Amino acid sequence: MPAKGWVEIDEALCKGCELCVAYCPVSVLALDTNRLTPQGYHPAALVEDACTGCNVCAVVCPEAAITVYREVIPRRHATTV
Amino acid sequence: MTRELLKGNVAMAEAAIRAGVDAYFGYPITPQSELLEWMSKRMPEEGRAFLQAESEVAAINMVYGAACTGARVMTSTSGPGISLMAEGISYIAGTEVPAVIVDVMRGGPGLGNIAPSQGDYRQVIHGAGHGDFFPLVLAPASVQEAVDLISEAFDLAEKYRTVVFVVADGSIGQMMEPVTLPPMRERKRARPEWAVGGAKGRAPRRLTSLYLKPEVEERVNLRILRRWREAEAHEVRYRGYHLDDAAYVVIGFGTAGRVALSAVRAARSEGIRVGLFRPVSLRPFPTQAIRQLASQAKAFLVVEMNGGQMLEDVQAAAQGQVPIRFYGRMGGMVPFPDEVLAEIKALAAAPPSPADDPRGRWLAQMAQA
Amino acid sequence: MTVSAPSKPRRKLKLVYQKPEALTDKATHYCPGCTHGVAHRLVAEVIDEMGIRERAIGIAPVGCAVLAYDYFELDGVEAAHGRAPAMATGIKRVLPDSVVFTYQGDGDLASIGMAEIMHAAARGERITVIFINNAIYGMTGGQMAPTTLPQQVTTSSPRGRDVVTQGYPIRMAEILATLDGVAYSVRRSMHDPANIRKAKKAIRLAFEAQVRGLGFAMVELLSTCPTNWRMSPIEAMHWVRDHMVPAYPLGDYKVDAALKKLRV
Questions:
Q1: What is the pairing mode between strands A44-46 and A66-71?
Q2: C157 pairs with which residues across the strands?
Q3: b/e for B83-114, b at 16 or more Cβ within 10 A?
Q4: Which CATH class is domain C36-260?
C-alpha cells in the first residue's frame, strides 16, 4: 500500500484558480464552495482520502499556498510492500 | 599643494576620484568626453568601477542602481544626454538616493552644436525629469571652482539624498587652467542604513519610487519638499565682487559671470560704480541676496549665454524693486568683455524703467546688430 | 460541491514541500492562476536551495511584476520600465559579490528595454535575468506585446496581430544566445507540472552561472495571462501548450560548458 499524503492549503494565499484541482493525478482536490477566503475566493481543499503526497499541487500552485506532507513508512512495512 | 595645469573636464574627473567616487557610468558626448576618458583610465587604476554605457539612458540607470547600494556614483554628459537621462534622474529623486551629474552645456536645442552655452539652465534647475522634486545645481566659473564644487557635490547629494548637478558650460570643460586638486579622500565604507546590498542579519530593504496609494505618495512628496527646504535654508552659494558701493549690479553665472567680471573691472577703472553678483548655486537660487541688492541698486544687468533663462528668476527675486537690463548670447556664442562693458555703460547712462521688458529690448538690439 | 473531510493519516508525517523562505508572507496581487506566482516561487526555491538569500538583490520591472520586490524576502529595488539590466549592472559593478537578478516581462525586456538587455548580455554582466513571456501587456490591460503571436487578438490589435503592419514576434532566447557574453540562454514553459520542474532547473543554472562568474544568464519562461487572454487558468495553461510552445520552441540556446557538467 503506497504512503498516504496530506496537504494543507493556506487560505490567506489561495485564490481558487483550480490549477491544483486540474493537475492532481488522483483527483483528491476541489474548491470548497462553502468557504470564502479573506480575499474572497473559494479555496481549494482536500476532499478525498487518496492523496499520495506527490507534490504536483504545490508545483503548479502560483501562490505557494500548499504545504505537502507524506507518511513516514516504518522500515518493516516498507520492505514488505 | 602643487598647482597643475589641467583641462576642466579632466580636473573635474580627477576631483571626483579624490572625493572618493566609487563608480562612474557615462556615454561619450562633446564637450564632456575627456571626463569619461579620464575616468576610463583612472578608475580601474584605483580599483573602482568604470563603465561606458550603451546610452545615456543606460548610464543613468546604472548610476541609479549603484546609488541604491549607497555607493558614491556619478555620470557626466551634455544637454542632449541630460534629455535622455531625464527619466532616470526622476527615479533617482523619487527613490531618494544620492547621485552627482555633471552637465557640460553646449548649444541647442536639438543637436545644436558643441560650443559653450548655458541653454540647459531651465532643464537642470527642474532636474529634467517628471514629478515634484528639486535637484541642487552648482555652477562653477573656473576650473578650480569646478574642482571644489565636485567635491562638495557628493557631500550635498548624500546629505539631502538627492541629485546634485554641476553645470559647467562648455568653456569650463574645455579650458586649461592651473588648479590645486584636493588630497585623496578616504573612500567611505559604512553603508547607509537605507542602502541595499543583501539582507544579511537584518530585514530586507526595498528601494522604490513607486507609491501606489496617493496618501503615501503625498507623504513622500512632502518629505522630499521638506528636505529641499533645508537645502534652501543652508546651501545657497554665490560670490560678490565690488558690491559694497555698487550702484549697478551685473548678475551672471558660470562663464557669463566670469566674462562679466572682466567688464566690471574695466568699468570700475572708468569710474562706474558697478559690481558683480555671481550665483554659484542655481538651485537653491540666491533669491534673498538678490532681493537685498535690488533694494539698494539703481539697476541690474543680467548677462547669460542663453535667451534669459535665469533672468526670470532674477526678476522674481527683485520683485520689481529695480529696473533690469538683459544681455545674452546664444547658440554657442560667448560674449566678449567689451560687449558686456558696453552694456554696463549703457545701463549707467540710461537706466531702464521698471516697466521695460528686458528681453524685448535685448531682442530688438540683437536685430540691429 | 459538498466537501467531505478526509481523514489525516495516522502515521507520522514528513514535510514534502512548504513555501520557500525567500518569499514573504504577503498575498500577491496577481490574478488567480497567473503563472507569475509560479515563477516567483521557483526563483525563491532556487535562492533557498543555493543559500544565497542574504546576498541576493532582486530588481523588479514595470509591468504586472512591478511589486515583485514586496514578495521576495530579500533586498530589492524597482527599476524604470525596461532599465532593470542597466540598474543591475550598476549594482553588480559596485557589489560584485552580491547575487543580482532582474525579473522582467515581455514589454519591459523585449520592447522598451531591448537596448539595455542586449548590451548587458553583450557585456557578459554577471547577472541573472528571469524573462516572463506571456505574449501580452498585462498591467496596462492586454495590449499587443513584441511577443504577441501573429493573428493574436489583443486590445491594441483588435483584428489580430497583422504582421504586415505590426511586425513579427521576437524570440529573445535565440537572439541573446548569439552574443559572446552570454553563458546561459534557454526557454522553458510553465504550462504543466513537468515543465514547471524543468523551468526550475533552468532557473537554478541561471543563478549558478552568475555565482560561478560565467557570464550573463537568462531564462525565458512561457507564461499565462488568463485575465487578458480571457480564459480560465487551466485554459490558459493549454493555450501556452497549444499556441505558444509551437511559436516559441522550448530548448537550450546557449549553455556554457561548465554548466553542462553541473548536476542540479
A1: unpaired
A2: C154
A3: bbbbbbbbbbbbbbbbbbbbbbbbbbeeebeb
A4: alpha beta
Can you give the residue range of the structural domain that contains A68? 5-80
Quote the CA–CA distance of B81 and B91 in Å, as a whole number. Answer: 16
Interface test with C, best of A69, A71, A77 (most C CBs within 10 A): A69
B278-335 per-position pLDDT tens digit: 999 999 999 999 999 999 999 999 999 999 999 999 999 999 999 999 999 999 999 9
Nearest to B60 by CA among C82, A44, C118, C43: C82
- Chain B CB contacts of C125 below 8 Å: none
Residue among C75, C86, C116 minimizing CB distance to B204: C75
Judged by CB atoms closer than 8 Å, whether chains meet at C90 and B61 is answered as yes
Q: Which of B7, B285, B19, B31 is nearest to B149 (CA)?
A: B19
Taking only the tens place, the pLDDT of each residue in B248-292 is: 999 999 999 999 999 999 999 999 999 999 999 999 999 999 999
Q: How many other C-beta atoms lie within 10 A of the C-beta of residue A63?
A: 29
Q: What is the pLDDT of residues B24-44, one digit of tens each?
A: 999 999 999 999 999 999 999
**Cell 542586449, residue located:** C118
Domains observed in chain B = 3-194+208-234 (3.40.50.970), 239-368 (3.40.50.920)
CB C59 within 8 A of CB C88: yes
- Residue B140 near residue B168 (C-beta atoms within 8 A): yes
Q: Are B167 and B138 in contact (CB under 8 A)?
A: yes
A56 to C193: CB separation less than 8 angstroms, yes or no: yes
Q: How many CB pairs under 8 A join B and C?
A: 128
Number of domains in chain A: 1
- For chain C, the domains span 36-260
Instruction: Name the H helices within chain C.
Output: 36-50, 84-94, 106-107, 114-122, 163-166, 172-177, 193-211, 226-229, 233-239, 245-247, 257-260
Considering only CB atoms, C32 lies closest to which of A16, A22, A46, namely A16
- Chain C residues closer than 8 Å to A46 by CB: 6
